[in-house]
Amino acid sequence: MATETKPRESAAIWATFRESPLAVKTILGGVFVNRVGGFLNIFLVLYLVARGYSAGQAALALGIYGGGAMVGVLVGGALANRLGARNATVISMAGSAGLIASLLYLPNYPLLLVAVALVSLVGQMYRPASATLLSELTPEDRQVMIFAMYRFGLNLGTTAAPLIGFALYNLNHQQFTLLFWGEALVALAYAVLAFVALPAKRARGAEPDGEVKAAPSGSYLEMFRDRRYTLYLLATFFNAAVYMQYLSTLPLDVSAAGLEIFWYTLAVSLNGFIVIAFELLLTKVSQRWPMKLTIGLAFALVGVGVAFYGLPMGPAVIIIATLIWTLGEIIGGPSVFAYPAVAGPAHLKGRYIGSFQFMFGLGTAVGPVIGAALFVELGHAVWPVLAIGSLIATVLALAAVRPKPVEPDPVSDAEVGTATPGDGPVLVTADDGR
Question: Which pLDDT value is given to residue 363?
């Protein structure tokens, strides 16, 4: 646990950020900057079509991009343990910078597909590493709040990215050169910042005579022996698959009902605004609740909101249902993201986080396809069926989430975070947050 001169009474938003080490501030800022510069997945289809490729070829490239991203977080989870967060982040960001720029100059479609796969794989490797270090450098009473800040950066950057990308596209006379080079430079800048500000990987520990003790080895196979966490991964998949229906099945149903698309766009905009404006504030309260309660409540509210869409479709139903599942998102989102960091032993933390991000990404990729297929068969009656997925997620989460964190490893990482001026050094061990 973090060594402190006095206990903290609560995890306030500004106090949590101000008292965090420089490495934590770097990660939080880097997540935002990286998302702001994340133009590729938004403009990839438009870029390929502009180069003369068919809509089918562009869609295939986008699918490969998504698949590469899911593999990337698994690879990143392993690299976070083997190389340390700094090295994994530098490799990820520097590698993706070169690959993104190369897309502008590759001469044929097969090479473009290879580059797209590598861009997404390499570019996502930093995420488990960043989340692992974020957890390791944060004390137990601030885990949920720090992951709420992490989500805030993700959401804010994701919201701003399309607007900034569109501005660069028009500034370049509706060409993609400035846009892709801008994303490459952002990734390279974050690689340099991570190299300077993040702590290097340290030895696991030492005997009294100074001999370094070997670190426990770990693998994804060892992680899967944790049956309760495997249930949590399944819960994550079902929840993510149902959650993503607002991007696929909902617009299909709104269109089939003959409603103005304005009501759909208003609901989606409300979701984004509420999450950005209120999630951090609500986390000041919800962080005090047991994780089992907040995660179970979040998954259940997603299901209630989705089931509410099953009422006769109209503007009020669209807005109210969206507000219900948005409430679940802001209540439990930070805890859902924080739990993988405290669910297992320290030497497997990167793999616990990487597997969570993989299952979340798999759910977001598969969910829209399943939802759209069910809508074709069932029409408006699809919503109660989809809500069953949330019921499954809720039951699995309640069975999976431990009331108390696991015991720390007998041998754990020792990291010294670089504190902000005036804070003094903070000794942090890898069982932080356990």
Answer: 92
Neighbours of 288 (CB within 10 A): 12
Query: Looking at domain 225-400, which CATH architecture does it have?
Result: Up-down Bundle (1.20)
Report the alpha-carbon distance of residue 138 to residue 135 in Å, rounded: 5
Closest CA to 313 of 303, 322, 301, 302: 322
Place of tokens 């989606």: 268
Q: How far apart are CA 136 and CA 189, in angstroms?
A: 24
Say yes or no: domain 13-202+413-429 is CATH 1.20.1250.20.
yes
Q: Compute φ and ψ for 278, nearest 5 degrees.
A: -125, -15
Q: Are 194 and 29 in contact (CB under 8 A)?
A: no
User: For the range 325-328, what are the long-range contacts, defined as Cβ-Cβ under 8 Å and sequence gap of 24 or more?
Assistant: 325/243, 325/246, 325/301, 326/270, 326/271, 326/274, 326/275, 327/301, 328/297, 328/298, 328/299, 328/300, 328/301, 328/302, 328/304
- pTM of the full structure: 0.78
Residues of the chain with CATH 1.20.1250.20: 13-202+413-429, 225-400
Average pLDDT by stretches of 10, the chain with 434 residues: 41 85 90 77 84 86 85 83 84 92 92 92 87 88 92 86 84 88 90 89 45 55 92 97 91 91 90 92 92 96 97 96 96 94 88 92 88 92 96 97 61 37 31 32
What pLDDT score does 207 carry? 39
For residue 46, what pLDDT is reported?
Answer: 83
**pLDDT, position 217:** 52
211/12 Cα distance (integer angstroms): 40
Both tokens assigned to 293: 């309660």
